[in-house]
Amino acid sequence: MIGRLDGVLATRSQIVTELLTEGSRWDLRALDRDQRQVMLDGRDDPAVQEPDPTPAPEDIPLMPALGHDGRLGYQELAQRTGMSESTARRRTSRLLRTGVLVPRCEIAHSRSNYPVFVTYRMNVPSAALARVGSALSGVSAVRMCASISSAHNLVVNGWVRSVPDSRRLEEYLVERFPEITMVDRSLTLANFKRMGWILDDEGRAVRPVPIDLWRAPATV
């Protein structure tokens, strides 16, 4: 737990009431239109969304295994979890189909064109929150947008090209969405961990610390 680490004096938690968009949906805009179409043409037909996106107890061993390496083949996944290969395939397919598992391809921020992380905390009138939050999620620089239960009710994380661009993005958001009252903004100067992976100074993955919400937290 973060609060048990030496040097940590206090922690603060905020409950997400709705996650409107997050990093797995963010578009790096590295492919042109023709390249995008090739990927769409080769995609399988989407399966029908199942009504209950909840992992069964027998599915839980798949989570840390795939968190360690999401590219595992079914045979190796079966070996790591003690399942048969057909069972691992069936359960993984269900978890992907229901959205319990979401594939996510990360990039070292130092190697991208968007090395600066900015976070805005804002208030939006309750009647406009769903509409504004949904529209914010479609802004190209916005990587994460969530409504939260706090003194402010919306938090937005963006990746931009430079520190001055963080101000330009704020100006754009406030001008486009006059319902927004900007409460706070901050820049992330260093990022040492993301989605269960320890990062080096360049933002490259060094080693995994799989996210496992179903077991007691390991001592750091």
> What is the string of helix and strand elements?
EHHHHEHEEHEEEE
Radius of gyration: 20 Å
* DSSP E strands, number: 8
Structural class of the helices, strands and pairings?
alpha+beta
Strand order of the largest sheet: 1-3-4-2-5
- Would you identify the regions where 5 or more consecutive residues have pLDDT less than 50? 44-48
Average pLDDT taken over every residue? 85
CATH domain class of the domain at 14-27 and 106-189: Alpha Beta
Please tally the helical runs, counting DSSP H or I stretches of 4 or more residues: 6
The CATH homologous superfamily of the domain at 14-27 and 106-189 corresponds to Lrp/AsnC effector binding domain/regulation of amino acid metabolism (RAM) domain
Specify the oligomeric state: single chain
Which percent bin holds the helix content?
A: 25-40%
Pfam families: HTH_AsnC-type
Protein name: Lrp/AsnC family transcriptional regulator
Keywords: DNA-binding, Transcription, Transcription regulation
Domain HTH asnC-type: 62-95
Describe the 3D structure.
It comes from Streptomyces rugosispiralis. Residues 41-60 are annotated as: Disordered. Residues 62-95 form the HTH asnC-type domain. This is Lrp/AsnC family transcriptional regulator. The chain has 220 residues and is an alpha+beta fold. It has a domain at 14-27 and 106-189: Alpha-Beta Plaits (2-Layer Sandwich), CATH 3.30.70. It has helices at 33-41, 62-68, 74-81, 85-98, 126-137, 163-176; strands spanning 15-21, 116-123, 142-149, 154-160, 181-188, 193-194, 197-199, 205-208. Strand 6 (193-194) and strand 7 (197-199) form a beta hairpin. Helix 3 (74-81) crosses helix 4 (85-98). The radius of gyration is 20 Å and the shape is globular. The termini are close together. Residues 44-48 have low confidence and may be disordered.
